[in-house]
Amino acid sequence: MARNKYPEQSREKILDVAQKLFLEKGYEQTTIQKIVDDLNGMTKGVIYHHFKSKKDIWNAVMARMAGDSTQQCWFENWPGKTGLEKLQRALLRSLSEFQRYDVAYSAEVMLKDPKTIGELFLKNLAEGTDGIEGYVIEGMQDGSIETEDAHELAEFIITSINLWIGIRFTSLKREQIINKFELLKRVYDGIDVPLINNEIIDMAVRLYDNLQIVQKKF
């Protein structure tokens, strides 16, 4: 068998196909053979060269979706004059870039497999909290954020946006998205952390409208 000249490209292709299958069919209904079938010419041997098992592929897909492979430095050097402004700009960036994850945010897909939702959320919660806590502390120091609990606030930001809204994004109605973000705005304003502004709410609605178009494909 000829040696693969582009092992990293092969690995990424495997992950692309596996991610699509995991999201469409769920973990239990996705098999190594189905991944092979959808790879159009790649053999099981190539898959097992890169991954020991389906679980190994799953872990790699979850890591990539959470940003480990393509965005290792995502939390570094956010632009902005204050800690709060950096968090706001990062949230805007996230909402605009989520179009790359349109499949993952289709309600029909996400609700098929709670395992996908649970593992991805827990990973995002841990890494996201660690990633933004430094900006919360920066905001405390520059006066743009008033809190004595940096870690808990960072965790609340991730939880309120990713869990309360994010994983149900397209299963909600448009007005519900607006209402939830407006409620979050009042909550954050009430604790002297004015994280949510009208620009962020508008971007969330734009994302919702785009994903409604994507969802019709399923």
Automatic annotation (TrEMBL):
Molecular function as annotated in GO: DNA binding
Endpoints of the signal sequence: none
HTH tetR-type domain ranges (all copies): 8-69
Swiss-Prot/TrEMBL keywords: DNA-binding
Cited Pfam families: TetR_N
Record-annotated DNA-binding residue ranges: 32-51
Protein name: TetR/AcrR family transcriptional regulator
Species annotation: Pediococcus pentosaceus
